[in-house]
Structure formats: C-alpha cells, structure tokens
UniProtKB/TrEMBL annotation:
Superkingdom per UniProt: Bacteria
Record lineage: Bacteria, Pseudomonadati, Bacteroidota, Cytophagia, Cytophagales
Keyword Signal included in the entry's annotation: yes
Keyword list, A-Z: Signal
Signal peptide: 1-22
Identification of the protein by name: MetA-pathway of phenol degradation
Protein source organism: Ekhidna lutea
Amino acid sequence: MLKLRHLILIASSLLLVSQPYAQGCSDAGFCTMGAMKPDQNYSKRIAIKLRSIELNYYKGTSIISPVISAATIDFNLGINDYSAFQIKVPYMWITGNLGDNAGLGDISLSYTRLLKATNNWNVNGTLGAKLPSNDANATISNEHTGGMESPLHMYYQTSLGSYDAIAGVSALSGEWLLATGIQIALTENNNQFVWSDFPNYPDREYLEKNNRGIELKRGIDVMLRVERNWRFTNFNFSLGALPIYRITKDEAIIPGTTERGKIEGTTGLALSILGSFGYHFDVNNSVKIIQGIKLVDRDVNPDGLTRDEVLSISYVYKF
C-alpha cells in the first residue's frame, strides 16, 4: 500500500508540471524506442532481460490549433541477459479548429541488444519498425465541410500512414545517456487533405498555408540525445537536449496536379530541451514525469508532428 508521503510527492510533482510541457520529442517515434528512449535505468546489477509494462499519458499542443493526447501501453520483454523486445501501442485523440478525431495510433516494434559493457558504460543497439494503424486519411463531416465527408489534415490523423525502418545506438552510464538514431519512411501515406474541402472555414489563408501533404512521404530523420541524470536511492531527475535533423525533403502530390514533388522548407533542425523526474516506490513500481519545450523548429511541417509543449506521465511496473 502506498504511504501518505508517496502520494504527497506524486501530487506535488504533478502540480509542478501541470502546464502542458513536452516530452520533447516531436519526431515520428524513434526517440522513445529501445536504446534511444529517455531516462533509461542503469545498474551494474540488473541485466537487460528486465521486463516491464509502462502506462503513459501525454497531452501536447501543436504549432497550430490541434491538441493531441495519447494513452500508450509500452511493453518490454527481455529474452536473455543481452537482448529485449519492445512494443508500444498508443490510442490517440485530437481536437482542433477543423474538428475531432480519435483512434489507434501507429504500433512501434523494436529489438535492443547489449553490444558492449564496461565497468562504467553500457553500449546498446536497436533495430525497429513502425507499423501504420491506418492510411492517415480519416475524414470528417461538419459545418466547415458543408456536410460532406472530407479528409483531415495530418495534424488530426492518428497514424502517419507509412511503414518506417528505425535503427539506433546509445551509451549509458550512471550519469550520462548519449544516443543517436535514424528513422526512414519506406512508403507514402494516403492523406488527401485539400483546403477546398472546407469551404465554410472562416480563415482560408490558414488552410492554404497547411495544404502541402497529399500522399506524403516524410524525409529521413536523424536524432541525437544528450542527457545528464542524477540518481538517488528512491528518485532521480535528468536534464537533456534532443536535436532531430531531417536530412532529406518531404515529398507529396503537388496541389492541383497528379505529379509528386519535393516540399521546400521541410529539412533542417528541430531542437527541444527536456527534463524528467522519477520516483521508485520499490524495485517493482515507479512513476516518472518527462517534460520539455521546443526551442527550434523546421519552417514547414506537413507531417503534423511538431509539438510546442507536451506533458508526459508514466507508471512503470517491473517484473
């Protein structure tokens, strides 16, 4: 049974971060997978085969009107002393000026292996994939569409609609986490959003500005995570930076044509700073809060991934 001081500690922590700050990851998924995930456990006495179930909730604001929330089950299963599988299954709901949408998000699968262990560092490698839960072309019928079923913008979609390949490596010590990874979209999605499908929306300029993602194929993302962790008997906290660089341009159908083209302004740096706090009730049960804020963003974001602010809260059960 939880002690009163534990409950007070949790309540105080939640109040401190009740503003919608960020998990810090406005990426397509790889910065919370395997070797690249934040606030990783480190112990010379615990093998990688540790198993856990994590229940996570976050709520994020985008650079335009949509607010994105998600509840995620994150299951980690160690298969021996050197390797483990991870599966993440999110349920998402989005609300914004164009309407609301909800449904299953993309499923993340990864395999992580301990590559090298020294007295002070563990080096881990991860291979993974993201599987689309739908084709990213959910529709809506409301006053803005004149009662017609019209595809929503990518910011309102619960899936990226593409099959992605992911790889990464990290070096982890008691104080530091250094990680890098790459995510490659292998296919385009089927999003068909065009501004003219929302003839009754009052701000036409707003719609035209975001009319750039028909059958979108995202560019390649490369990430780097640098995180400093302070660990104590029952709690820990960390501070870090998360730059994500899109090294190739997004491509999509050019509006008004049937031809595909590169989208200018979609390459470049997205940079977040982030912090975390974790409390361990015992060896099996813990909670953690991860927060951050976006400092730098790319000029054009047709994939709908950018988050200005997000709050992430998790309960972790190890077995």
